Amino acid sequence: MNGWQKQVLAGLLSFVLFAMVILLFTFSAFPLKDWSDLWSRKVLDLPYILLALALSVTGGLGVGIAQGYALKRKFHYVEHQLDEIGKGNPVLYDDVDRGDLQKIEEKMKQIEARFKKQTETAQRLASERAKEREKSLQEVVHQERNRLARELHDSVSQQLFAASMMMSAINENKSTDTESRDRQMAMVEKMIHQSQLEMRALLLHLRPVALKDKSLSEGCNELLHELTQKVPMNIEWTVEPLSLEKGIEDQLFRILQEAVSNTLRHAKANTLTVMLIERDDHIILRIVDDGIGFDVEEAKTSSYGLQNMQERALEVGGTLKVVSLSEQGTRLEVKVPHFVKGGEPS
Fold first, then answer.
1. What is the Cα–Cα distance from 133 to 139, expressed in whole angstroms?
2. Of 114, 61, 63, 57, which Cα lies nearest the Cα of 91?
3. DSSP 8-state secondary structure symbol assigned to residue 36
């Protein structure tokens, strides 16, 4: 029997019960000599039988409404709990006996425990893979060098070549008026400036693949402080001291490198803000810039960097959310559950 049928049955039973109680009270307190008295006698200007019927219907309706409200609250409770489980947030269960929902709550606890176990397993595997990557550092460095060589050829080298060709054209064309010459020189300056940003962004990838003996917080502080010395951009950051598994630290640091590199190369931003904190048993890494923005849906299918960051977040049981608006900047946020040893949230 489903919830709706139970609600209807409860209303009908309540109606019958109220009617029986009223009739029992009537026959006990006021014995009837004739059944017609139920119609002839009036209370509140109504025949007594109609008043009794109205009271029974009202009582049954009240019980039905109360049952419906209680059922609605139960469904809302289940919906809220499932939503929290889906978001990966810790779920608090009431110590109240919810009757027929008790089995559903037990299933939700099992699902939550399974998700938590899967996340812990993913984080442990990520840590093991991080240690394996350290052992094969030379191979990774070789791959990174090849990739950087392609990047240099496709971006910096071509831009410098274009600037060189433009400078040659300016020097050879002596008849160019001053205004046109100044405009061309400004274009050359812009190309060289962009090449510098491209080069500094690519240099981020020359860092060690892992953090070595540094914590994630120390590595982030060092990276961002170094950028303030080399990049003409306002950089602000809030980094809390955190104690994390090596796999989580490695992946979050690489995501930060990738995000900052993309900002330097493509965003044309004036301000970069980075935040690394722990809240509600989750590690949150947030990178925000005020650049030109981009089409997130298009980038999901065409951007290797965005796909790479998404995979890194998933590898440690986290989520990656990117919001970007044209000429209003980009906000990237990674959220990773954090468990201490033993399986309990930190």
1. 9
2. 114
3. T
Question: What is the C-alpha separation between 86 and 79, in angstroms, rounded?
Answer: 10
Question: What's residue 17's pLDDT?
Answer: 65
What 3-state class would DSSP assign to 166? helix
Listing DSSP states for 242-303 in one string gives ----HHHHHHHHHHHHHHHHHIIIII--SEEEEEEEEETTEEEEEEEE-S----HHHHHHH-
Query: What angle (nearest 5°) sits at the alpha carbon of residue 231, between those of residues 226 and 233?
Result: 110
Query: How far apart are the C-alpha atoms of 157 and 342, rounded to whole Å?
Result: 52
Coil, helix or strand at residue 192: helix
- Which two structure tokens, joined as six digits, stand for 343? 């399986």
Contact 48, 29 (CB under 8 A): no
pLDDT at residue 251, rounded to an integer: 92
Spatial distance between the Cα atoms of 171 and 120, rounded to a whole number of angstroms: 64
In this prediction, residue 208 carries a pLDDT of 43
Q: Which pLDDT does position 209 carry in this prediction?
A: 44
Instruction: Report percent pLDDT > 70 for the chain.
Output: 60
Q: What is the DSSP letter of 310?
A: H
Greatest alpha-carbon span in the chain:
129
Query: Does an H or E element contain 334, and which?
Result: strand 329-337
Q: Helix (H, G, I), strand (E, B), or coil: what is residue 316?
A: coil
pLDDT-based confidence at residue 30 (cuts at 50, 70, 90): low
Tokens 């009036």 appear where? 42
| pLDDT value at 280 more than 50 | yes
Angle (CA) 32-34-39 rounded to 5° is 90
Cβ neighbourhood burial of 279 (10 Å; 0-12, 13-18, 19+)? exposed
| SS3 call for 320 | strand
Determine the pLDDT at residue 78. 74
What angle do helix axes 216-230 and 246-262 make, rounded to 10 degrees?
20
Global model pTM greater than 0.90: no
